[in-house]
Write the structure tokens for this entry.
Amino acid sequence: MSSGQEPVFSEYETDTSQTSKLLRKFKETPFVPIGMAGFAVVVGYGLYRLKHRGDMKMSLHLIHMRVAAQGFVVGAITCGVLYSMFREYVVKPKE
């Protein structure tokens, strides 16, 4: 890239730290990081419960954890869409 050209993604090149990117994403769409955190919690709980699953088969335990993690993420996405619709159509002043 020559010095006379302006960067194509200048707004993204200024925010290079992961923390600033995460904070910007959280402000734009707050339910995305909540969904990611919920997914991590479900996976952590599943790994903890893996040790104490009793006589349940491993495949059945993994299927249950996958369904729980996917359900949490889909729920977070649904809440995010409803929140966006609420902001766009209810809170936004009429023009």
User: Anything to note?
Assistant: Helices lie at 10-14, 18-28, 31-51, 58-91. Residues 50 and 58 are 8 Å apart (CA to CA).
